[in-house]
Design brief:
mainly beta, 228 residues, 0% helix, 5-stranded antiparallel beta sheet, 7-stranded mixed beta sheet
């Protein structure tokens, strides 16, 4: 089966679309899961197109040296067409968003994995850290998908320079659904939470006397489009 991979919203590799993408008739209905549950097949449905996004990572807190840690990465998104002719129900897992750090210099929590049974799974984004350059956490990917959209990267660690130049917060990663870039706006403000499904939370900053908290990552989602 051909795989299409998008990295930060840019196509990195494309081959011929898999035959499974072909749908016999128009969209009949859809079910949207913003929390875990069970998909039950409506009468007459033979195929579904599922879009699954993992939870976004939480932002890091500011450290004790006028620096802000990284923003949380976004969750991956996997899109897959599934033949459900012989399937009556599928367990759906929706990953929670990672918790923003609340302790000075601490890393943000990672987002949870979302899945549509064993058919497609999308990892949650890693939390923001104090890593610099190539040491940044890896980006989230989907498995089992026809189309794999890698979770967007949160902005990295930002260094300040004592009281004359403290660092503002770093933005969270953008997901397939948008959002992210939830940095704090000025000294003394917490990082903003991810604003779209699976987007990362922004990091807090540090003004030398106290550090602000990281923002929470946004929970994932699973959308099931149903075709007769």
């Amino acid at each position: 089966m051909a795989i299409i991979t998008l990295n930060n919203n840019s196509l990195s590799s494309v081959t011929a679309l898999p035959a499974a993408i072909s749908l016999d008739s128009g969209l009949a209905s859809q079910q949207v899961f913003t929390s875990s549950g069970t998909w039950t097949k409506p009468s007459g449905i033979t195929k579904v197109k599922v879009t699954v996004t993992g939870g976004g990572g939480g932002g890091g807190a500011g450290d004790a040296n006028y620096n802000s840690l990284g923003g949380g990465h976004a969750g991956a998104t996997g899109i897959k067409v599934v033949d459900v002719s012989a399937i009556s129900s599928v367990a759906v897992t929706v990953g929670s968003g990672g918790t923003g750090a609340t302790s000075r210099g601490a890393n943000g929590g990672s987002g949870g994995t979302s899945s549509f049974g064993t058919h497609v799974s999308a990892a949650g984004g890693n939390g923001g850290t104090n890593a610099v350059g190539t040491a940044q956490p890896t980006l989230a990917v989907a498995t089992g998908a026809d189309i794999n959209i890698i979770g967007g990267s949160g902005e990295g660690y930002q260094g300040g320079d004592a009281s004359t130049d403290y660092a503002g917060g770093s933005g969270g990663g953008v997901s397939y659904w948008g959002g992210g870039l939830g940095q704090s706006s000025a000294s003394g403000f917490d990082g903003r939470a991810g604003s779209a499904f699976g987007s990362g939370g922004g990091s807090g900053d540090d003004d030398g006397s106290s550090a602000s908290n990281g923002g929470n990552g946004a929970a994932g989602i699973c959308v099931v489009e149903e075709y007769a």
